[in-house]
What we know:
Layout: H1 2-15, H2 25-38, E1 42-43, E2 55-56, E3 62-64, E4 78-87, E5 90-99, H3 106-124, H4 132-144, E6 149-150, E7 156-158, E8 165-169, E9 188-196, E10 202-204, E11 212-214, E12 220-229, E13 234-236
Antiparallel strand pairs: 1-4, 2-4, 3-11, 4-5, 6-9, 7-8, 7-9, 9-12, 10-11, 12-13
Helix pairs in contact: 1-2, 3-4
Amino acid sequence: MKEGGARLREAVNQLLPTIKQGQTTKEIDKKAEKLILSKGAEISFKKVKEYSWATCLPINEQVVHTPPGDRVLKEGDVLTIDVGAYYRGFHTDYATTFVIGGSGSRETDMFLRVGRETLDRAIQQAKVGNYIGHISQVIEKGICSSGYHVMKQLTGHGVGRELHEDPFVPGYLDKPLKETLKIRTGLVLAIEVIYSLGTEHIVNEKGNDWSIATADGSLSACFEHTVAITDENTYVLT
């Protein structure tokens, strides 16, 4: 999984500089697929039943699972790239959100910075002896203390031979901390910070199969890393 994650991240690092206004998300998806395959990996998301693309590419109010299509990127749009690679029988999963054109308004840039920093802090809690609740607690505090909203119906997850495995990794503490799963060596998690500017509520986007959007049309973002926990350390695989 360490090797698969490195190959996925290498593909993403080559993809990101090529993304600009005027492109469709379908064009970006084709580039992503070509890059992942060029690294000797397979497309994780195509192993999800009835999903036919290499990426999910939500824009602005779209939250997660948005398939690539004919929507054209404009300068200032906020784009999430969610992508996975399957290498030698194991999946790794990664997501990041950024502004087309480099930077947005002060409010947008702050919104995205909080998500990135919250994910970094959450990963620090993924260690032997802690509980999943420690991760959830840090995400909830980081997002909500900044005035934003955790999308409570959407969570991180275990990852390995399947793209989505137990346990769920919520972005908020939904029960007493010590009633959540204790973290043990060998656990691999896709930790996700999924949040919005205006609401915790989501809707299925009309006319767009798979896509989930914010109920109020406000901006959303997702930051995700696959991490592996060992006795000695926690490794960010992506």
